[in-house]
From TrEMBL:
Residue ranges of the TM segments: 12-33, 178-202
Compartments (UniProt record): Membrane
Catalysed conversion reaction: ATP + protein L-histidine = ADP + protein N-phospho-L-histidine
PROSITE patterns: HAMP, HIS_KIN
Stored Pfam families: HATPase_c, His_kinase
Entry keyword set: Kinase, Membrane, Phosphoprotein, Transferase, Transmembrane, Transmembrane helix, Two-component regulatory system
Residues in Histidine kinase domain copies: 384-490
Enzyme Commission no: 2.7.13.3
Keyword Nucleus: no
The HAMP domain, residue ranges: 203-256
Highest taxon listed in the record's lineage: Bacteria
Protein's recorded name: histidine kinase
């Protein structure tokens, strides 16, 4: 657990903290100082704006006062009073936001405004009697003088605000300057620490990597001597070093195991070669025995001789029967390991069915329907024959009343569909499942070949590299239907 405190992740986090903390601190402090300066400016501007509004409202009030003295208009009197009220309200508003010096000025200004209102109201009252200017002149002059005093106080208030805000601004600038000096020292110190930390960190990594690279070169040259790396201050590198040591030991053991296995395999291979030679000699001797038992040439010549005898005796049916048997035998021997056209397959099936029709008479009926050019459809030799044999041997032959075998071949797009159907005994569910589930070890009984249905399907799937070529439907006692979907390819 202690080793994980020196993990690479922990070191990266410390490095990030060293770099990010000064930057974040500087940004936050700068933001605070800027906000304080902005706030001070906003306060100063608001106060100056309010002071200016006091002056404007007071001037409006005095101007309307003069108008009323001249024309005694009620509108002028109303505007005079409104200007005074707004000016007084602003003075009261500033008192809660100002310093001591400004408050004294605001107090004097407030008193002067009240005096201005009192004397002004008295002047308006006297002028309303229309007794002549001598009656209200003194009050008028006093009102004007008080108005001037108010403007003087307003100017003093503006100067006071400017002075106060300048002091605040200067204090903030001095404070900002001091803080920036401290931050510069802090950032420089953090950078120096991070540089030293990085150099130490990289030194550990590079030394360890160089050690691993040197050992890797030795391993690539076949030197699997025991490796034990130096300890570092980085947990992950120490784990990597231990894993590398374990890997070298495992490789060394594995190579020794391979050498022992190779020696054993050489011994086994020599024994297998001797066994194969023995088996090959045995097969050759079996082949010679078979060849000595029956020679295809002799068989064909004999069939040909019988055929000629049948012709000379005018035995037409016997001659056609021998011709069909000879054709089937020749085709099965010649085309077993070759490809044929579907037309050639159909012809050999015709010969087979001709023989069976002669044998069984009305018990067997063979129907053939062809739509398309079968000469351009290629299949492995002896593809259709096993299906027809199965339909006859397992479907029709066991039935006492016989049955029919229908073959329907038609082109559909880029494929040729072959349907072989019989109304024979059908296939029980267990056997059907074995055929569908690709059980290729079922025993096959045939007249011309030893190939079963699954062998034919496997050859078709191999040659066309496709699945789903074969489909079978059957029910016990209801016959069997086989579908072949053969692609039309070169």
């Amino acid at each position: 657990m202690m080793a994980k405190t020196n993990s690479l992740k922990r070191k990266f986090i410390i490095f990030a903290i060293i770099i990010i903390t000064p930057i974040a601190t500087t940004s936050i402090v700068s933001l605070i100082i800027s906000k304080q300066i902005t706030s001070a400016y906003d306060t100063m501007l608001n106060k100056m704006s309010t002071t200016n509004e006091i002056k404007e409202k007071l001037n409006d009030s005095f101007n309307n006062f003069n108008k009323y003295v001249l024309d005694n208009s009620e509108q002028s009197k109303t505007l005079y009073e409104e200007g005074y009220s707004k000016a007084l309200d602003n003075v009261i508003l500033l008192q809660s936001k100002s310093g001591i010096e400004s408050r004294y000025i605001l107090r004097d200004l407030q008193n002067s405004l009240r005096s201005y209102k009192g004397v002004g109201d008295n002047t308006i009252k006297l002028s309303s009697n229309k007794d002549g200017i001598d009656v209200y002149y003194t009050n008028y002059v006093s009102t004007k003088e008080i108005f001037n005093y108010c403007n003087i106080f307003i100017s003093k208030l503006s100067d006071s605000y400017l002075k106060n805000n300048n002091e605040i601004y200067n204090n903030l600038k001095a404070k900002e300057k001091y803080i920036y000096k401290v931050l510069i020292i802090y950032i420089v110190s953090a950078l120096l620490i991070s540089i030293l930390y990085t150099l130490f960190f990289l030194k550990n990594i590079l030394e360890k990597l160089k050690e691993l690279v040197d050992t890797s070169k030795k391993v690539s040259q076949g030197d699997f001597s025991f490796y034990e790396g130096k300890k570092t201050f980085i947990y992950e590198l120490d784990i990597l070093s231990l894993a590398f040591s374990a890997m070298i030991n495992d490789i060394k053991k594995y190579i020794n195991s391979i050498k022992e296995t190779a020696a054993l395999e050489i011994k086994l291979r020599n024994e297998e070669m001797n066994l194969l030679k023995y088996q090959n000699a045995l097969k050759q001797s079996q082949l010679r025995v078979l060849q000595s038992q029956i020679n295809p040439h002799f068989l064909f010549n004999t069939l040909n001789c019988i055929n000629q005898t049948a012709i000379s005796e005018n035995a037409v049916i016997t001659e056609s029967l021998i011709t069909s048997v000879s054709g089937i035998l020749r085709y099965s021997l010649r085309m077993m390991d070759r490809n044929a056209t579907l037309m050639e397959e159909v012809n050999v099936v015709k010969q087979y069915m001709y023989i069976q029709e002669l044998r069984y008479g009305d018990r067997i009926k063979f129907n053939l329907s062809i739509k398309g050019d079968l000469n351009r459809v290629m299949v492995p030799g002896m593809t259709l024959q096993p299906f027809v044999e199965n339909a006859f041997i397992h479907g029709i032959e066991p039935k006492e009343d016989g049955g029919f075998i229908n073959i329907d071949i038609h082109e559909l797009g880029d494929s040729c569909t072959v349907i072989i159907e019989d109304n024979g005994c059908g296939i029980d569910e267990e056997t059907l499942n074995k055929i569908i589930c690709e059980e290729s070890k079922l025993k096959h009984i045939g007249h011309t070949t030893g190939m079963g249905i699954r062998s034919v399907v496997e050859r078709l799937e191999l040659i066309y590299e496709e699945k789903g070529i074969f489909k079978i439907e059957s029910k016990k006692g209801c016959g069997t239907r086989i579908y072949l979907q053969i692609p039309i390819k070169e």
